[in-house]
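User: Sequence for Carbamoyl phosphate synthase small chain below. Tokens please.
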Amino acid sequence: MDFWIEPFKPDFKARMTQDLPSSPLPLRTDEAKGWSKPVATAVLVLADGTVLRGSGFGAIGEAVAEVCFNTAMTGYQEILTDPSYAEQIVTFTFPHIGNVGTNEDDFETTNFEAQASVRGLIVLAPITNPSNHRSTSHFDAWLKSRSIIGLSGIDTRALTTLIREKGMPNAVIAHHPDGIFDIEALKAKAAAWHGIDGMDLVPPVTSSKPHEWTATGILPARALQPNNGENRHRVVAIDYGVKRSILQLLTEAGCAVTVVPATASAQEIAALEPDGIFLSNGPGDPAETAKYAVPIIQDLLERKIPTFGICLGHQILALAIGAKTHKMRQGHHGANHPVLDKTTGKVEIVSMNHGFAVDIETLPPQAVETHLSLFDGTNCGIALTDRPAFSVQHHPEASPGPRDSHYLFQRFVTLMEQAKA
Ligand SMILES: NC(=O)CC[C@H](N)C(=O)O
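Assistant: Structure tokens for Carbamoyl phosphate synthase small chain:
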């Protein structure tokens, strides 16, 4: 059978229309009847009724979630295993995703039994066979095993523009190989979804019981004094959905780390006699998690234990001292964001993954802003002036991403050393 497929030419004028352009769809052929026609095997249906059609890969089924875009050029496996992406669908602006396969090392979740947090991914180019010596599993098989739905052939630049202009939409991603979808029902499902605002998404991803963490990373860390296998500081990491690379860097910085569930009481934590408290990253609305996390943190701050927070941990520390957080329109997700460290005047290129931000106007007098985003001026870090505590919105563990901000782990170690002295 002879047929012609139009090469994919994104039509940027059509960006904001109801039907966004997409690449050629797979053909379905009926040999007996002698026809072949394009069939969408996956769709993304936004709450406003916009429908994007493409080719499905990964898990088969449907999921409702919030759509964000991530501008990282590498590290898709780390992104898709980061627990902070709970209830989200990631649109990758980098066109080639999946071509280095997947492996046993590049995982960010520490909770291997838990279901994947991210619900789906959207890419431009169809995924290929893996081409990398580290790959142990095909991307498609890996996504299926983790119940993550994939949609390719989408003009991801147009979708990113839509998110930038209208904000992160709620949507249903659906993959059915027969290409049969009840679009009206999917529109209704997307429109009826409650969204992430107001959702505490920590319970499914936090550790169920305290455990010790001892592993270091594969690559040597930057800007850390070598620990020579010696544990100089005892750190309790409160797990709101912690990334593995953060725990590895704490270990490399010379910390003996005990990971505790998000609901561990201040008394239980204090009984471990920590030199420092780490507040982890995690999914969902910080103001909801704060309802139980803030009293615990306030109690620990009273005890003047040095404290360091990352991302959700940063937001919850800010809430604990009386500041407020708000939902962002498009959020920050990528590995190329410039951030200014106001304490040194240096600019670092950082990894980002957040959809909420600390409202800097609400910061009380006993805290100062230490970092800010040079993309949009949003707050990226605070330090308390009356307690040994600081936190950052970006991801100094940088997995994936540039490692400019590794120095923050050293800053935490220095804070613990000063407290001991
Ligand atoms: N990576 C994170 O810790 C994300 C924090 C929070 N859930 C947000 O989206 O802003």
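The chain has a mean pLDDT of 91.
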